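In the lab's daily routine, each protein ends up as an entry in a very long ledger. A line of letters takes care of the sequence, but it says nothing directly about the fold. The fold becomes a row of whole numbers, each drawn from a learned catalogue of backbone shapes. The protein below has been through that process, and both of its lines are reproduced in full:
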Amino acid sequence: EPTLSEQVADLRGEAQPLRLAVDQVRIEYPGTVREGKVVSPTEYEATRATVARAAATFSELQSDLAVIAPAGTDRVDRGLRALSDLVERRASVEEVKRQATQTDQELSAAVGSDREADQ
């Protein structure tokens, strides 16, 4: 039987793809949209797929995350929904980056920082 700390460590590891996807949105999106218009359709579709992948990963982890951080889990859920909405609306790069950063911070608060996961 794994200990609680081992289970939490496993959950942190399972959340890593979600963290990477959110970071990837922050990196990819700036080259896809300008002034509400898609300037790189292939990259824009890749960004949309990344957001969808993040949402799917979160969906798989949501019940476990809710056990250790119910309020944080709700904030991550709202953050991912907001990020998806911004990408779909072709919002400004600044808005998307800000939301991605906020969502990543909420995820870190819910499951622990990268530094904690590496220990």
In short: Strands lie at 33-34, 37-38. Confidence is low (pLDDT under 50) at residues 115-119. The two ends are 21 Å apart (CA to CA).
